[in-house]
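Hi W.,

Here's what went into the run:
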Amino acid sequence: MSLVVLGTVALDHVKTPSGSKKDMLGGSAAHFAMSARLFTDVHMVAVVGKDFPSKHLNFLRSKGIDLSSVKISNGKTFRWRGEYKKDDLNTAVTLATQLGVLQTYAPELKERQKNISNIFLANFDPDLQLQLFKYLKTPRLIGLDSMNLWITHKQKSLRRLMKMVHLFVANDGEARALTGENNLIMAAKRLRAMGPRMIVIKKGEQGVLFYSDQVMFSFPAYPVEKVVDPTGAGDTFAGGLMGYLSKAGKLDDKTLRKALLYATTVASFNVQGFGMARTASLSLREVEERMKVLVKFFALT
Amino acid sequence: MSLVVLGTVALDHVKTPSGSKKDMLGGSAAHFAMSARLFTDVHMVAVVGKDFPSKHLNFLRSKGIDLSSVKISNGKTFRWRGEYKKDDLNTAVTLATQLGVLQTYAPELKERQKNISNIFLANFDPDLQLQLFKYLKTPRLIGLDSMNLWITHKQKSLRRLMKMVHLFVANDGEARALTGENNLIMAAKRLRAMGPRMIVIKKGEQGVLFYSDQVMFSFPAYPVEKVVDPTGAGDTFAGGLMGYLSKAGKLDDKTLRKALLYATTVASFNVQGFGMARTASLSLREVEERMKVLVKFFALT
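Here's what came out:
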């Protein structure tokens, strides 16, 4: 089953202890799609400016990503500049953002995309995320991601959204900020009470926690020795999760556990290169090879 | 096979968001022994003062712990007073320590204990830990724990010790402090290079990482919703680990994984009550019941 993702497409300028890269293809929708395309057809809903390099669009298209709902607007593409410090590679320090065309964007879906039943609202302004609902005819699985910026400045819209989605993805810091709970199990329960049936808490190099009324489980992350650039790891994770769930077409315990294994494995590739350096060339076979190593990593025997 | 533990026996005064308790039996050797006794005979090597309540000694004896190398010296028992804040239940803030009889203590072993081949050097002054070696006739497995205080003030002695032991246990903060590596996989490799064949990094509620030249694995922790008092969790963990390894009498991959599962499970009980409130009454059967739940928590299906 196909999958729609709404989110940002950006030009990223990132500095990490491994170096610095400018004008990289980035953004929540782009990282998500680069991961989800390994599992299913992905339809991207986003906006870029006239300055957006056509090589990036061609590249996304070459990966099989449907760009018919990617709008090219008058103005500048969204740009993000950030840095990760040696002592905390999990936390991005935002140095500059240039919203550009994001400021006037209203997401739209093509008629033939309105029946797609798997939807992911990647990190984006919650008010824009809310706008997508009017196009959805037969949603089966709606996933939502957010970030601290929106938890702080648009919590009301975010809380409204949470009542409308089935799956909520947050990192540990976001889960704590949104619930006021330091203990992640308690935080997951609070998030569940805010609406979504399924809660996924990403803990970076510490792995992932899944919580629903029926089941709770946790996996460690694949052991990456050298994190080059964590930008987009959360989106890549969500892409693997939603991509596999869309492909599987079911949401039982076993399917969910497998989806989270895929998610954490794909994310481990993302952090090993700048931007999409590692995920752009990734095949499902490579992901599954690494997944076998991950499974042995926490096996009992 | 029997097990010797050298460490502290203390009177603890602990404040946590759940309350405050005074004059509790504590210390690294005591918490370790309370856990390891579930698996094998434990011989405690420690010192207390004349003021130490005989009820605590009787209690330890009633749990089958051999106290023949626990010295009762003139002077005061070691006392520790600490607090855990709501926003970081993993980190103890030391408010006061009263070394008392620790200041003049020299550990000794009874003749019949010198042939015991499993030894754990629980958190203690490294110079005192070093003194135990002269008594050991046939060591098979020597484990070592330490803390930030010794990493800062007695790193030379600690590094010397690390060359003499087989297994080193550290929490994530200690592993980072000792190696200067933020990435825990890299930190584990550095620790391995300092001497010990087996490295165990405890990550609190995030679980555990094991590293050796042959194998690396990780388990999540048992999901505890309410941490009452984490004092002694690391010692309880080490007690489960060394206790099971002593009982099993082997160190293959499967045995190590099982030992770490026991360790993390026993530790999860420790944090659910003040001091030894939960571990004192614990049975191996209860531990194994919870271990089944933990195994399902990170199972693939």
